[in-house]
Amino acid sequence: MNLKKELNDKKEYFEKELENYIPKIQGYQKTLFEAMKYSLDAGGKRLRPILLMESTSLVGGNIEDAIPFACAIEMIHTYSLIHDDLPAMDDDDLRRGKPTNHKVFGEGIAILAGDGLLNYAFELMIKHSLKYEKESYKYLKAMNEIAKAAGVYGMIAGQVVDLESENKKIDKETLDFIHTNKTSAMIVGALRAGAIIGGADEKQLENITTYANNIGLGFQIVDDILDIVGDESKLGKNVGSDLENNKSTYPSLFGLEESKKIAKKLIDDAKNSISSFEDKGEFLKYLADYIVDREY
Amino acid sequence: MNLKKELNDKKEYFEKELENYIPKIQGYQKTLFEAMKYSLDAGGKRLRPILLMESTSLVGGNIEDAIPFACAIEMIHTYSLIHDDLPAMDDDDLRRGKPTNHKVFGEGIAILAGDGLLNYAFELMIKHSLKYEKESYKYLKAMNEIAKAAGVYGMIAGQVVDLESENKKIDKETLDFIHTNKTSAMIVGALRAGAIIGGADEKQLENITTYANNIGLGFQIVDDILDIVGDESKLGKNVGSDLENNKSTYPSLFGLEESKKIAKKLIDDAKNSISSFEDKGEFLKYLADYIVDREY
């Protein structure tokens, strides 16, 4: 399997679909739509929507049923980046090699573009859930996974503790709380929501959740490692910015080599947890490897 | 009918219920919950949740079914105030006579508390909708009303255009766009969602929508008037702040007396539109009058 090509095909498929779900740039609130689209179009790996759709297909569901939810989770991820980059938060000027949203549109519009993306994500999911009355309960359950993952017991919790931990020495428990919530939660949410849309049974959902938790934490650890060893052009953000902010990370707590080992172990466990899907899980297994191997 | 007492009773009833729906202040993300609660507890008229619950009962529904949605709409309203007060937006230090959220918790936490409230509003509505599978479609429709009202074709659209109109002379169409979206949309959303939860038929929903549109615009016009003639202690915000920002308003476009007449006419039409509910509509009619008469 040529994973790079597979991943790129899925990314292109998703991005084509996403275009249909972005509000048209017109009306009095034109600038808002421009700002939303600017960050949505800025690229990135599209990891969450790809995981969501893949999870739907893994359990035998139809990917098309999952598209509005895939767009919604990418919108939520994008809003979180816009707000995270603001001067009052991480104060970043660059994201994926482009000026951050507030650098282009100003802080006020950037805040509202973030708010808009979060709200619009729910609008999309609700609209899709309303389409077929009989199926609506299933979609409501999938929406619940995404809402929880993105919320004050998920992603936002991670961001708050991350913000409060700047320039502080934190222990492993706090670091794990940040990672689990800031990054893993949405990966878990994506995979669980996708599986529910695809009609997963209890056992399948459990296995997918184990996979999700492992690659979620692994992903963040590798991000921390890349923040030290990556180069700016590959990541499109200022390398070492976490170090500059004195953030505690896996490498700063355990060292580089040990961190790589921890990530490797998490990924192996992830792959094992979906072995029951046999060939159908092939892409997700490759993807798990890609997460650790991607840049170093 | 002693409206003031009725209104106060409903406000107290709502606020007691709201306490049960605010996340407990505990865990690593304690500060987040404190910031969310700080602004939720800051009071205000609780107009949107009261309208929502009243609309449910107007069409013969059970108010208790509407409570989580009433809490959700107040959370969305509150988040919009937190973000609106930020330095990059209206830059207000006072709200309802208390320091604004970012003055107490800092800008970063204020942004996240706003995000948290918006997301949590959806979490509450989804959780409630999942409770009874058979009823879930109805709640999904009610959630749709609130999501649209709060979103990029509703409240957020109004905020963006409002922000962009500062220090600019704008025409009546633009002003109406701002009013309709920034304030009316959520009032319409509250009343329509409440009616749907209560089981309204098409005709009832239509009449309630007319009522909602009229009091929504009337409410904003009166707010503009109060910004000129009100006194600071009554409003708990800096009087004349709209004027300072050179915002176009009904009074600045039409003069005070003509603006009062326009508001009065809107309210009369609102009351007529719910006459078919006879005695059951009494409170909402009083409330419509209260909106124009409240402070001047």
Automatic annotation (TrEMBL), chains A, B:
- A Pfam family of this chain: polyprenyl_synt
Keyword list (alphabetical) reads: Isoprene biosynthesis, Magnesium, Metal-binding, Transferase
Its taxonomic path starts at:
Bacteria, Bacillati, Bacillota, Clostridia, Peptostreptococcales
Task: Determine the domain of life of the protein's source.
Answer: Bacteria
Cofactor(s) listed in the protein's UniProt record: Mg(2+)
Q: Does the keyword Magnesium apply?
A: yes
Name of the protein? Farnesyl diphosphate synthase
Give the source species: Tepidibacter formicigenes DSM 15518
Family affiliation = Belongs to the FPP/GGPP synthase family.
